[in-house]
Every structure is written in C-alpha cells, then in structure tokens.
Amino acid sequence: TFRPNRVTVFGAGYIGLVTGACLAELGHDVVVRDIDPAKVEALQAGEVPIYEPGLGDMIARNKERLRFTLDLGEALAQAEVAYVCVDTPPSASGDADLSRVWSVVRSLAGAEGLRAVVMKSTVPIGTGARARALLDEVGLAGAGYVSNPEFTAEGRAVRDFMGPDRIVIGTDGDETAAALVAGLHAGIDAPVVTMDVRSAETVKLASNALLATRISYANEMANLCDRTGADVTKVLAAVGMDHRLGPYFLNAGIGWGGSCFPKDVEALRQIASNSGFHPMLLSAVIDVNNIQRRRPLQGLKDALGDLAGREVVLLGMAFKPGTDDMREAPSTVLASRLLAEGARVRCWDPLARPGDVEPWASAVRYASVEEALEGADAAVVVTEWPQLAGVDWAAVAELMRRPVVFDGRNLLEPARMREWGFTYMSIGRP
Ligand code: UDX
To answer: Which stretches make up the UDP-glucose/GDP-mannose dehydrogenase C-terminal domain (predicted)?
Structure first.
C-alpha cells in the first residue's frame, strides 16, 4: 500500500523543479525551497521559469501536494527526505564548485524529522563521504545519506524521470534511508540498481562521458569521410545496426554542448588528473569537440574569403532543439569567433531568450527564418530545429545576397540545395 512521504527539494532549478513536480505526481507531499525570492514568487504565482514540456501542467495539477518557499524553517519542518538539487558549476580550476551543495547540507541542521538526504546534483566522486561527515558534524547522524544521480535530458526530463532506464541508489551502509528513497519511486517501472556511494557518483559522469565519446567518434568519422568521399550518415546508420552498439548518439554535427556533457566530461578528466593519471581518451573526446565547434568557420572562409563585414546568420542558438538553453551551445562559440573576425552576426531561434543572445550586439531574434536570411552573405545551421527543414530554401536562395549555407547538423538535402543554387557544405557528406 502506498504511503506518501514528506519531501523537501532544495533548489528550484531545472533538476529541482522536475524532481519536485514528479515526486508530487507520484503522490508525495513536496516543498521546493529556493533562496531566490523572485523565482519563488514566480513559482507561487503559477509561473514556470524554465521551458520543459509537460512540467507546467504537472506542477499545476499537483498544487495540493507541491508548494514553493523561501522560508528555511518551513523547508526543514517538512523534510523527512531532503533532496539536494543545486547546481555545481565548474570553478576556475575545472573542478566542480560545491559551495551551493555545502550550504544546503549545512542548512539542514535542525531538521528534526529528517531521515534521508538525497544527492541529486552531479558531484565529484568522494563528495558523499564529505557530506556524510558534515551531516554528522551538524547533529544529523540519524539521517541516512543516499546518492541518486539523475539521467534526465532536457526537453524530455519529465518523461525521463517518470520512465527511466534505471534508478541508481548509492549508499554506504545507510540501508534504511536507501530503502526509503527507493520506495519514493513506487509507481515507476524501472530497475533499481543499488551500489556504494562512490560508484553511484561515478555512474552519472561515466555515462555522460560515453555518450559524448560516441558523438566525438561520429564527428571524427565525419571528418574522415570529408576526405575520403564517403557519407558518414550512411556509414554510421549501418554501424549502429550492430546490436552491440545501437543507433543512438552517432549523429555527426558541430559538437556537443549543453549544461551536462561539457561540464561532466571535463569534471571526469579533472578527477582522473587529480588522482594522478592522464585520461587520454577523455582528453581526445574534448579536443575533438573543441575543434568540431569551429568547423563552420573554415567552410565560410573557403566560400567567402575574408569574413570582415560579412552578414552571417546563425540558425538556432539553443544547444539542441526543443529547449531554450544556450549553456555551452556551439552557437556561442561561433558567434564570438565570427564577431572577432569582423563579421556581422544575426541570430534566429524560436525559443532562446533575446536576453541570452544580446551579448552579441547585432544579434536579434527575427520573426521568421526568411526575414533573418534576407540580404545575408551566409547562413549556418547550428541547431537542427525541425522548422528549418520546412523552410522554402529555393525562395531563400533568392533572398540571400550570397546563397552560402553551412549545415552543421546535416539537416538539409545536399543535392536539392545545390540544385537551388546554394554553395552548400555539411558534415561528412559528399
Ligand atoms: C544529456 C544526457 O543525455 C542526459 O542523460 C544527462 O542527464 C544530461 O546530459 P542533454 O544535455 O539534455 O542531456 O542533451 P542531449 O540530448 O543528450 O544532447 C547533448 C548534446 O549532444 C547536444 O549538444 C546535442 O546536439 C549533441 N548530440 C547528441 C550530437 O551532436 N549528436 C548526437 O547524435 C546526439
């Protein structure tokens, strides 16, 4: 029989909101606490500050069981289980900055009914042991510590939480807390994998690093195909049909970005280096990506010569379709390189917020792709928004001053684009 638990989620960011909403959906009584008054106020007023399909509806239909607060006292009074969902951005050294994590753990002192602390934030290997010691120090020896990494991808976070491939639970002897946390997921049909805390902390990083490795591999194969005349999309489609490999994360493009891959692969490399060995593969995976993100620049120079004074349109600013997130997006690298070369940059994106784009001065959100492309010297497909495949490119060829397109996502059809008069370049396709 189902027994709801009282849960406090610390951090109303991306992961915290998804976690809080989904736990409420599962029937638990949830308080989400954040230290940002504006954010809490917006959430209390029913506004959802991030774009994530299904999240707004889920928050709305669970408002009986889901509250937002600024008040630490209220958060602690509620906390039978405390989820740590704060961000751990890279610090100057490349190591994750854990200051927000420590501040949450410290603030738990005085939570009298606390039975379990769940680490959802992505943290370096060994953080759990330090958190355990800190909990003991602040008088919470009775609360178990559990590592429960998340594997949600943006744009499908709600689906990933409610239907994950696995639920990883890490514990170093706090079995009761581990069982409690596993039990919170009752209603979700997924294997629960239990292991020690260090291993659980490693799974998240190892999993993201392998996904990023596959993409860097795809990009390396694409660069090879560019020289041999083979078509990387055909090659990797067939490679991925090997059941030992599978078809996912083999799309060549202008590299991986986002809030997780760059941070997590770098963190894992850093952890390896700090522990005294040089992780050659991880370093290569990162190098390939850094080079890949600049691929369009050379293509544009080949087509246009000097880029100074050229009007270049970046089609897609978000790091992938279906999100407004521009963290570590290839578009940001391209925009700043193009500006440094003296080009004028225009940007189009259906979701990215103008405020995020504005640092690049001339960057504007255009009403339509066609409007953005009018009179331009070149366009780069940076994000594979489906809208871009639906554009009337034959008409666009007439609108542009020079019909030059670098398709960084292999979204368009090379033969057709050339038929319509484009100088068309893509990644690893003849
Ligand atoms: C990722 C992981 O998928 C998720 O499990 C983890 O919890 C967080 O990191 P996310 O960052 O939302 O999720 O994006 P994802 O869809 O995985 O894409 C990551 C990047 O790889 C994007 O920049 C995307 O454009 C790129 N990518 C992905 C490719 O270049 N080729 C591919 O075949 C797949």
So the answer is: 313-414
User: Is residue 430 domain-resident?
Assistant: no
State the CATH number of the domain containing residue 41: 3.40.50.720
C-beta of 385 in contact with ligand 1 (< 6 A):
no
Listed in sequence order, the DSSP H helices in 166-314 are 175-184, 197-228, 232-239, 261-274, 280-292, 295-304
The stretch 369-377 carries a mean pLDDT of 95
Task: Indicate if 91 and 186 belong to the same structural domain.
Answer: yes
Please tell me the pTM assigned to this model.
0.94
261 CB near ligand 1 (under 6 Å): yes
22, 85, 260, 347: the catalytic one is 260
Interval 11-54: pLDDT, tens: 999 999 999 999 999 999 999 999 999 999 999 999 999 889 99
Domain of residue 242 covers 204-291
Looking at the DSSP assignment, which residues form a beta bridge with residue 167? 192
Q: Can 225 be counted among the known catalytic residues? A: no
**79 three-state secondary structure:** coil
Minimal-distance CA residue to ligand 1 atom 13: 153
